[in-house]
Amino acid sequence: MRRVVITGMGGICALGDTWEQIERGLRAGRNTVRVMPEWDRFEDMGTRLASPVPDFAPPPHWTRKQLRSMGRVAQFAVRAAELAIADAGLMHDPLVRSGHMGVACGSSIGSAPDMQDFATMMITGDGSVLNANSYVRLMPHTTAANVGIFLGITGRIVPTSSACTSGSQGIGYAYEAIRAGRQKLMVAGGAEELCASEAMAFDTLYATSRRNEQPHATPRPYDRDRDGLVIGEGAAMMVLEELEHARARGARIHAELVGFATNSDGVHVTRPEERTMRIVMELALADAGLAPQDIDYVNGHGTATEHGDIAETRATAALFGARMPISSQKSYIGHTLGACGALEAWFSIEMMKRDWIAPTLNLDNVDGRCGELDYVTGPGRTKRMQYVMSNNFAFGGVNTSLIFKRWEDHGR
Fold first, then answer.
1. How far, rounded to the nearest angstrom, does the alpha carbon of residue 184 sit from its chain's CA centroid?
2. 224 and 266 fall within a common domain
3. Which pLDDT belongs to residue 410?
4. Per-residue pLDDT at 77
5. Which of 25, 170, 314, 388 fits a disulfide with 105 by CB distance 3.0 to 4.6 angstroms?
6. Mean pLDDT, 10 residues at a time, the chain of 412 residues
7. Which is catalytic among the residues 100, 254, 335, 370?
8. CA 408 remoteness from chain centre
9. Whole domain around residue 25: which residue ranges?
10. Of the candidates 218, 248, 278, which is a domain's last residue?
11. Where are the alpha helices (H) located in 2-126, listed in sequence order?
12. In the prediction, which pLDDT does 1 show?
């Protein structure tokens, strides 16, 4: 099997669009949740909280023709892909269009305004609100398709639309394609744009935070006083590359991806299963040829929902024991749904490179029903890490686990 390394990374979230901005926010403990007064018109929705990306605008070099097919979610994905390609030293490189590179990425849904236009057409019968690009902006694979078209990628396209595991499945399927020799390089990740419909979907399940008077006091992953999640938005993309190919072109390597697994609970659409959560982590360890004691940090899914937090942490504690450090960056930027797996993978690699673990914000009292783990709080944790695991769990009973290795090139 071929070895797979990460040679480019880029993304966008409420903390910024460069790692330097994001790291400053993480170290400062900056919670980006705010009240959304524009949601007051949804009288039956209890939450008014979200974590939007502020002041995002398409770069000036994007053409009007390119923008026609891109809603906000595709714009996030394409911009993150551009940043990752540039970081990999591949901007304007013929490799991108050679057929040796593919795309694997996704989002929970397409672009919300176009969804609204189709709903208007169905309710009123007025099709004048639609145009030739309406479906392209709405379709479930709008992120993957637009990344491929924008960059001129002619390799395989793997769309992943699996809610909160869209980004991590994109990275994992890209890894498998390269390991199997199907592609030399893949750009992979996930994206999501903020929409009240997503908040409402969780609100109907009583799973959203309603601390509308205290936006910065929520979400509270793993805390006994949690009251639900907060929706966010953003994107992250990575360039995955076959190791020998990366070496041959003199690429800078951020980390090695050594393990991936995905499985299904097979029980319930929205109720997480501790048993299969543990199994997906075990499968990732087996794929990497590692033992539980080899992992130095687990980047938890940490949604701040009761059943999710409890099942996830019990599964993690059963496998790794109380020694394992765990934290959740959703406490800073909310739950970015299709983007979270990619954003958290990016954060995991950058933290590993810097020997520092970002803490979970608002975690004052660990819920006694959660698994016994080393919950990182306060100013964070200085720790040298050789292997980090990033886990995500989604509606539909979809589970993923990624394992990254610190890159230390000794010629092997």
1. 23
2. no
3. 57
4. 98
5. 170
6. 96 98 98 97 97 96 96 98 98 95 96 91 92 93 97 97 97 98 98 96 96 98 98 98 97 98 94 96 98 98 97 98 98 98 98 98 98 98 98 96 91 49
7. 335
8. 25
9. 4-248
10. 248
11. 19-28, 64-68, 72-87, 112-124
12. 81
Do 336 and 212 belong together in one domain? no
Please check whether residues 230 and 282 belong to one and the same domain: no
Alpha-carbon gap, residue 402 to 224, rounded angstroms: 28
Q: Which of 164, 195, 340, 370 is catalytic?
A: 164
d(C-alpha 295, C-alpha 352), whole Å: 12
Which CATH number belongs to the domain containing residue 117 in this structure?
A: 3.40.47.10
The counts of H helices and E strands in the chain are: 13, 16
- Residue 404 domain-assigned (yes or no): no
Active site residue 141: no
* 164 tagged catalytic: yes
| Residue 410 is among the residues annotated as catalytic for this protein | no
pLDDT, position 293: 98
pTM greater than the 0.90 cutoff: yes
Catalytic residue, from 105, 301, 340, 370: name it. Answer: 301
Position 156 scores a pLDDT of: 97
Q: Are 114 and 108 in contact (CB under 8 A)?
A: no
Residue 309: CB atoms within 10 A of its CB come to 27
Question: Partners of 385 in the beta sheet?
Answer: none
